[in-house]
Amino acid sequence: MKPQAQAAKKQNLMNPYQSQPVKAFWKPAVGERSLSNLSELWGPKFAIAPDSKVATYGSCFAQHFGQALIRRNHHWLNTEPAPAGLKPEQARAFGYNLFSSRTGNIYTTSLMQQWCLWSFGIAAPPDEIWQRDDRFFDPYRPMIEPEGFASPDELLATRAHTFACFRSSVEQANCLVFTLGLTERWGNILNGTEYPICPGTTAGTFNQDQHVFDNMDYSSVRESLLAAIGLMRDANPGLNILLTVSPVPLTATATKQHVLIATMHSKSILRAVAGQVAMELPYVDYFPSYDIISSPALKSSFFAPNKRDVTGQAVGYVMDRFFGAQAESFGPFKEQPPADHHLRQSQIDPVCDEEMLAAFGADR
Fold this sequence. Notes:
By secondary structure, this protein is of the alpha/beta class. It has a domain at 49-295. Helices cover 35% and strands 11% of the residues. The chain has ten helices and nine strands. It has helices spanning 3-12, 26-31, 62-71, 88-93, 109-119, 152-172, 218-235, 259-280, 289-294, 312-330, and strands at residues 54-58, 130-132, 135-137, 175-180, 184-188, 193-195, 211-215, 240-245, 284-286. Helix 5 (109-119) crosses helix 6 (152-172), helix 5 (109-119) runs parallel beside helix 7 and helix 7 (218-235) packs across helix 8 (259-280). The chain is globular. It starts with a helix and ends in a 34-residue tail after the last helix. The model is unreliable at 340-347 and 354-360 (pLDDT under 50).
Protein backbone atom coordinates (compact mmCIF):
# COMPACT_ATOMS: atom_id res chain seq x y z
CA MET A 1 0.00 0.00 0.00
CA LYS A 2 1.32 3.44 -0.96
CA PRO A 3 2.24 5.90 1.81
CA GLN A 4 -0.55 8.24 0.74
CA ALA A 5 -3.11 5.44 1.04
CA GLN A 6 -1.79 4.43 4.45
CA ALA A 7 -2.10 8.00 5.66
CA ALA A 8 -5.65 8.20 4.35
CA LYS A 9 -6.52 4.93 6.07
CA LYS A 10 -5.13 6.21 9.38
CA GLN A 11 -7.13 9.40 8.92
CA ASN A 12 -10.31 7.38 8.39
CA LEU A 13 -9.62 5.44 11.59
CA MET A 14 -9.43 8.62 13.69
CA ASN A 15 -11.69 8.53 16.74
CA PRO A 16 -12.42 11.13 19.46
CA TYR A 17 -9.96 9.57 21.91
CA GLN A 18 -7.01 10.21 19.60
CA SER A 19 -7.46 13.97 20.00
CA GLN A 20 -7.94 13.91 23.77
CA PRO A 21 -5.28 15.61 25.95
CA VAL A 22 -2.99 13.72 28.34
CA LYS A 23 -5.24 14.47 31.32
CA ALA A 24 -7.99 12.30 29.79
CA PHE A 25 -5.98 9.07 30.20
CA TRP A 26 -5.39 7.38 33.54
CA LYS A 27 -1.93 5.95 32.90
CA PRO A 28 -0.05 9.14 31.93
CA ALA A 29 -2.26 11.49 33.97
CA VAL A 30 -2.38 9.50 37.22
CA GLY A 31 -0.74 6.08 37.10
CA GLU A 32 2.71 7.29 36.06
CA ARG A 33 2.72 10.48 38.12
CA SER A 34 3.71 11.22 41.67
CA LEU A 35 1.28 12.81 44.08
CA SER A 36 3.01 16.16 43.76
CA ASN A 37 2.91 16.08 39.95
CA LEU A 38 -0.84 15.73 39.38
CA SER A 39 -2.12 18.67 37.39
CA GLU A 40 -5.16 20.03 35.54
CA LEU A 41 -7.53 18.66 38.17
CA TRP A 42 -9.79 21.70 38.00
CA GLY A 43 -10.48 24.47 35.50
CA PRO A 44 -12.29 27.21 37.44
CA LYS A 45 -15.13 29.14 35.80
CA PHE A 46 -14.58 32.39 37.67
CA ALA A 47 -11.75 34.12 39.47
CA ILE A 48 -11.53 34.23 43.26
CA ALA A 49 -9.00 36.99 43.82
CA PRO A 50 -7.54 37.99 47.19
CA ASP A 51 -10.00 40.89 47.40
CA SER A 52 -13.03 38.77 46.42
CA LYS A 53 -15.47 38.52 49.31
CA VAL A 54 -15.94 34.80 49.91
CA ALA A 55 -18.61 33.40 52.22
CA THR A 56 -18.42 29.76 53.38
CA TYR A 57 -21.17 27.47 54.66
CA GLY A 58 -21.97 23.78 54.82
CA SER A 59 -20.57 20.72 56.52
CA CYS A 60 -17.57 20.80 58.82
CA PHE A 61 -15.20 20.48 55.83
CA ALA A 62 -16.31 23.95 54.68
CA GLN A 63 -14.40 25.38 57.63
CA HIS A 64 -11.14 24.41 55.91
CA PHE A 65 -11.93 26.82 53.08
CA GLY A 66 -12.33 29.76 55.43
CA GLN A 67 -9.08 28.90 57.18
CA ALA A 68 -7.22 28.49 53.89
CA LEU A 69 -8.48 31.82 52.57
CA ILE A 70 -7.30 33.59 55.71
CA ARG A 71 -3.86 31.95 55.60
CA ARG A 72 -3.48 33.02 51.95
CA ASN A 73 -4.48 36.61 52.78
CA HIS A 74 -7.76 36.32 50.88
CA HIS A 75 -10.95 38.03 51.99
CA TRP A 76 -12.98 35.52 53.97
CA LEU A 77 -16.31 37.21 54.67
CA ASN A 78 -17.26 36.95 58.34
CA THR A 79 -20.44 38.93 59.03
CA GLU A 80 -20.89 37.64 62.59
CA PRO A 81 -17.48 37.76 64.27
CA ALA A 82 -16.93 36.74 67.86
CA PRO A 83 -17.45 39.37 70.56
CA ALA A 84 -14.32 41.19 71.65
CA GLY A 85 -12.48 39.50 74.48
CA LEU A 86 -13.25 35.89 73.56
CA LYS A 87 -10.20 33.72 73.06
CA PRO A 88 -10.09 31.82 69.73
CA GLU A 89 -10.92 28.48 71.34
CA GLN A 90 -13.81 30.04 73.24
CA ALA A 91 -15.15 31.64 70.08
CA ARG A 92 -15.10 28.32 68.25
CA ALA A 93 -16.84 26.56 71.12
CA PHE A 94 -19.67 29.08 70.80
CA GLY A 95 -19.97 28.74 67.03
CA TYR A 96 -18.13 31.89 66.00
CA ASN A 97 -15.56 32.15 63.18
CA LEU A 98 -16.49 28.72 61.79
CA PHE A 99 -18.73 29.88 58.97
CA SER A 100 -19.53 33.33 57.61
CA SER A 101 -22.29 33.66 60.19
CA ARG A 102 -23.18 31.68 63.30
CA THR A 103 -25.35 29.07 61.60
CA GLY A 104 -23.54 25.98 62.78
CA ASN A 105 -23.20 23.11 60.34
CA ILE A 106 -25.52 23.11 57.32
CA TYR A 107 -25.17 19.51 56.19
CA THR A 108 -27.95 19.16 53.60
CA THR A 109 -29.17 21.16 50.63
CA SER A 110 -32.65 21.32 52.15
CA LEU A 111 -31.25 22.77 55.37
CA MET A 112 -29.51 25.46 53.29
CA GLN A 113 -32.83 26.18 51.60
CA GLN A 114 -34.47 26.48 55.04
CA TRP A 115 -31.81 28.98 56.16
CA CYS A 116 -32.43 31.03 53.02
CA LEU A 117 -36.21 31.03 53.49
CA TRP A 118 -35.96 32.16 57.09
CA SER A 119 -33.11 34.65 56.66
CA PHE A 120 -34.71 36.36 53.65
CA GLY A 121 -38.07 36.62 55.44
CA ILE A 122 -39.91 34.35 53.01
CA ALA A 123 -40.96 31.97 55.80
CA ALA A 124 -40.82 32.12 59.58
CA PRO A 125 -39.36 29.47 61.90
CA PRO A 126 -41.71 27.82 64.38
CA ASP A 127 -41.63 28.73 68.06
CA GLU A 128 -40.04 25.38 69.00
CA ILE A 129 -37.39 25.65 71.72
CA TRP A 130 -35.70 22.82 73.60
CA GLN A 131 -35.25 23.05 77.35
CA ARG A 132 -32.97 21.26 79.81
CA ASP A 133 -33.49 22.30 83.42
CA ASP A 134 -33.31 26.11 83.36
CA ARG A 135 -31.36 26.36 80.10
CA PHE A 136 -32.74 26.70 76.56
CA PHE A 137 -31.40 25.29 73.27
CA ASP A 138 -32.03 26.30 69.68
CA PRO A 139 -33.24 23.20 67.76
CA TYR A 140 -31.75 24.64 64.57
CA ARG A 141 -28.36 25.50 66.10
CA PRO A 142 -28.17 23.11 69.06
CA MET A 143 -24.41 23.33 69.65
CA ILE A 144 -23.63 27.03 69.34
CA GLU A 145 -24.27 27.58 73.07
CA PRO A 146 -22.72 24.58 74.84
CA GLU A 147 -24.63 25.26 78.07
CA GLY A 148 -27.74 26.65 76.42
CA PHE A 149 -29.29 30.11 76.59
CA ALA A 150 -30.49 31.77 79.76
CA SER A 151 -33.96 32.47 78.36
CA PRO A 152 -36.12 31.92 75.26
CA ASP A 153 -35.94 35.65 74.51
CA GLU A 154 -32.13 35.53 74.46
CA LEU A 155 -32.24 32.52 72.14
CA LEU A 156 -34.66 34.14 69.71
CA ALA A 157 -32.76 37.44 69.70
CA THR A 158 -29.46 35.76 68.82
CA ARG A 159 -31.16 33.66 66.16
CA ALA A 160 -32.69 36.78 64.58
CA HIS A 161 -29.26 38.37 64.60
CA THR A 162 -27.78 35.36 62.80
CA PHE A 163 -30.56 35.51 60.21
CA ALA A 164 -29.54 39.11 59.50
CA CYS A 165 -25.85 38.17 59.36
CA PHE A 166 -26.52 35.23 57.03
CA ARG A 167 -28.54 37.49 54.76
CA SER A 168 -25.77 40.10 54.83
CA SER A 169 -23.11 37.54 53.92
CA VAL A 170 -25.10 36.44 50.87
CA GLU A 171 -25.76 40.02 49.80
CA GLN A 172 -22.13 41.11 50.19
CA ALA A 173 -20.32 38.05 48.83
CA ASN A 174 -18.76 37.80 45.41
CA CYS A 175 -18.60 34.03 45.85
CA LEU A 176 -20.29 31.67 48.27
CA VAL A 177 -18.72 28.27 48.92
CA PHE A 178 -21.24 25.62 49.95
CA THR A 179 -19.94 22.20 51.02
CA LEU A 180 -22.53 19.44 50.75
CA GLY A 181 -22.17 16.91 53.56
CA LEU A 182 -25.13 14.57 54.01
CA THR A 183 -28.29 13.20 52.45
CA GLU A 184 -29.58 11.81 55.77
CA ARG A 185 -31.74 14.27 57.66
CA TRP A 186 -34.14 14.57 60.58
CA GLY A 187 -37.31 16.63 60.54
CA ASN A 188 -40.42 17.51 62.49
CA ILE A 189 -43.59 16.23 60.85
CA LEU A 190 -45.76 18.63 62.87
CA ASN A 191 -44.15 21.88 61.75
CA GLY A 192 -42.37 20.71 58.58
CA THR A 193 -38.89 21.87 59.59
CA GLU A 194 -35.50 20.19 59.42
CA TYR A 195 -32.92 19.87 62.20
CA PRO A 196 -29.14 19.83 61.68
CA ILE A 197 -28.92 16.73 63.89
CA CYS A 198 -31.29 14.20 65.42
CA PRO A 199 -33.17 15.46 68.51
CA GLY A 200 -32.02 13.74 71.68
CA THR A 201 -28.36 13.54 70.62
CA THR A 202 -26.82 16.93 71.39
CA ALA A 203 -29.95 18.43 72.97
CA GLY A 204 -33.72 18.04 72.98
CA THR A 205 -35.75 14.87 73.44
CA PHE A 206 -36.47 12.38 70.70
CA ASN A 207 -40.17 11.75 70.01
CA GLN A 208 -40.88 8.95 67.56
CA ASP A 209 -44.35 10.34 66.84
CA GLN A 210 -42.96 13.75 65.94
CA HIS A 211 -39.41 13.33 64.67
CA VAL A 212 -38.93 11.57 61.34
CA PHE A 213 -35.87 10.35 59.45
CA ASP A 214 -35.43 10.77 55.72
CA ASN A 215 -32.63 9.93 53.31
CA MET A 216 -32.77 12.33 50.40
CA ASP A 217 -32.62 10.97 46.87
CA TYR A 218 -31.05 12.63 43.82
CA SER A 219 -34.21 14.52 42.88
CA SER A 220 -34.83 16.00 46.32
CA VAL A 221 -31.17 17.03 46.75
CA ARG A 222 -31.17 18.68 43.35
CA GLU A 223 -34.53 20.40 43.86
CA SER A 224 -33.59 21.93 47.21
CA LEU A 225 -30.12 22.94 46.01
CA LEU A 226 -31.56 24.75 42.99
CA ALA A 227 -34.14 26.42 45.24
CA ALA A 228 -31.45 27.63 47.65
CA ILE A 229 -29.29 28.90 44.78
CA GLY A 230 -32.29 30.72 43.33
CA LEU A 231 -33.06 32.43 46.63
CA MET A 232 -29.45 33.53 47.08
CA ARG A 233 -29.23 34.82 43.52
CA ASP A 234 -32.47 36.75 44.02
CA ALA A 235 -30.80 38.48 46.97
CA ASN A 236 -27.52 38.98 45.09
CA PRO A 237 -27.83 38.60 41.29
CA GLY A 238 -24.06 38.79 40.82
CA LEU A 239 -23.27 36.00 43.28
CA ASN A 240 -21.08 33.13 42.09
CA ILE A 241 -21.46 29.83 43.93
CA LEU A 242 -18.74 27.24 44.36
CA LEU A 243 -19.98 23.79 45.34
CA THR A 244 -17.86 21.16 47.04
CA VAL A 245 -18.64 17.81 48.63
CA SER A 246 -17.18 16.81 51.97
CA PRO A 247 -14.89 13.76 51.73
CA VAL A 248 -15.44 13.00 55.41
CA PRO A 249 -17.39 9.72 55.88
CA LEU A 250 -20.54 9.56 57.98
CA THR A 251 -20.00 9.23 61.72
CA ALA A 252 -23.11 7.06 61.91
CA THR A 253 -26.11 6.19 59.78
CA ALA A 254 -29.79 5.94 60.67
CA THR A 255 -30.41 3.60 57.73
CA LYS A 256 -30.18 -0.18 57.94
CA GLN A 257 -27.05 -0.14 55.79
CA HIS A 258 -23.47 -0.59 56.94
CA VAL A 259 -22.07 2.88 57.58
CA LEU A 260 -19.49 2.41 54.80
CA ILE A 261 -22.21 1.66 52.25
CA ALA A 262 -24.39 4.47 53.58
CA THR A 263 -21.46 6.84 53.18
CA MET A 264 -20.86 5.87 49.56
CA HIS A 265 -24.56 6.13 48.78
CA SER A 266 -24.81 9.62 50.28
CA LYS A 267 -21.60 11.01 48.80
CA SER A 268 -22.36 9.61 45.35
CA ILE A 269 -25.69 11.44 45.23
CA LEU A 270 -24.19 14.69 46.48
CA ARG A 271 -21.31 14.49 44.01
CA ALA A 272 -23.64 13.76 41.11
CA VAL A 273 -25.99 16.64 41.95
CA ALA A 274 -23.19 19.14 42.53
CA GLY A 275 -21.47 18.23 39.28
CA GLN A 276 -24.67 18.33 37.24
CA VAL A 277 -25.83 21.67 38.61
CA ALA A 278 -22.38 23.15 37.97
CA MET A 279 -22.52 21.96 34.36
CA GLU A 280 -25.93 23.56 33.85
CA LEU A 281 -25.50 26.98 35.49
CA PRO A 282 -22.77 29.41 34.38
CA TYR A 283 -22.53 31.05 37.81
CA VAL A 284 -22.10 27.74 39.66
CA ASP A 285 -18.83 25.82 39.72
CA TYR A 286 -17.72 22.57 41.34
CA PHE A 287 -14.35 22.19 43.03
CA PRO A 288 -13.26 18.51 43.31
CA SER A 289 -12.01 18.36 46.91
CA TYR A 290 -14.06 15.19 47.44
CA ASP A 291 -12.73 13.59 44.26
CA ILE A 292 -9.11 14.36 45.08
CA ILE A 293 -9.15 13.11 48.66
CA SER A 294 -11.34 10.06 47.99
CA SER A 295 -9.55 8.96 44.83
CA PRO A 296 -8.12 5.42 45.04
CA ALA A 297 -4.85 6.90 43.82
CA LEU A 298 -4.52 9.21 46.80
CA LYS A 299 -6.79 8.43 49.73
CA SER A 300 -4.52 5.97 51.56
CA SER A 301 -2.27 8.87 52.51
CA PHE A 302 -5.02 11.40 53.10
CA PHE A 303 -6.97 9.85 55.99
CA ALA A 304 -5.98 9.46 59.64
CA PRO A 305 -5.67 5.96 61.18
CA ASN A 306 -9.38 6.04 62.10
CA LYS A 307 -10.08 6.05 58.33
CA ARG A 308 -12.43 9.03 58.74
CA ASP A 309 -10.58 12.19 59.68
CA VAL A 310 -8.94 13.98 56.78
CA THR A 311 -5.30 14.81 57.51
CA GLY A 312 -3.77 18.26 57.46
CA GLN A 313 -1.62 17.08 54.58
CA ALA A 314 -4.74 16.29 52.57
CA VAL A 315 -6.33 19.65 53.27
CA GLY A 316 -3.11 21.43 52.34
CA TYR A 317 -2.81 19.43 49.13
CA VAL A 318 -6.40 20.19 48.13
CA MET A 319 -6.12 23.90 48.83
CA ASP A 320 -2.80 24.10 46.95
CA ARG A 321 -4.67 22.73 43.92
CA PHE A 322 -7.44 25.25 44.47
CA PHE A 323 -5.17 28.29 44.53
CA GLY A 324 -2.87 26.83 41.88
CA ALA A 325 -5.75 26.37 39.43
CA GLN A 326 -6.90 29.93 40.05
CA ALA A 327 -3.43 31.24 39.24
CA GLU A 328 -3.15 29.06 36.11
CA SER A 329 -6.53 30.21 34.79
CA PHE A 330 -6.47 33.89 35.71
CA GLY A 331 -2.80 34.68 36.27
CA PRO A 332 -0.99 35.40 39.53
CA PHE A 333 -2.88 37.73 41.81
CA LYS A 334 -1.36 40.76 43.45
CA GLU A 335 0.02 39.93 46.87
CA GLN A 336 -2.07 41.20 49.74
CA PRO A 337 -0.77 42.32 53.15
CA PRO A 338 -1.04 39.67 55.88
CA ALA A 339 -4.34 39.48 57.71
CA ASP A 340 -3.76 41.04 61.10
CA HIS A 341 -6.24 39.27 63.34
CA HIS A 342 -6.50 36.23 65.58
CA LEU A 343 -8.20 34.13 62.90
CA ARG A 344 -4.90 33.70 61.09
CA GLN A 345 -3.62 30.44 62.51
CA SER A 346 -2.23 27.03 61.63
CA GLN A 347 -4.46 24.15 60.55
CA ILE A 348 -7.05 23.30 63.22
CA ASP A 349 -9.69 20.62 63.39
CA PRO A 350 -13.17 21.66 62.27
CA VAL A 351 -16.14 21.69 64.63
CA CYS A 352 -18.69 19.05 63.58
CA ASP A 353 -22.10 18.51 65.16
CA GLU A 354 -22.34 15.08 63.56
CA GLU A 355 -19.33 13.75 65.45
CA MET A 356 -21.47 13.70 68.60
CA LEU A 357 -23.20 10.61 67.17
CA ALA A 358 -20.04 8.55 67.71
CA ALA A 359 -20.76 8.51 71.45
CA PHE A 360 -23.84 6.34 70.90
CA GLY A 361 -21.75 3.54 69.35
CA ALA A 362 -18.77 3.73 71.67
CA ASP A 363 -19.61 0.61 73.69
CA ARG A 364 -20.82 -1.57 70.81
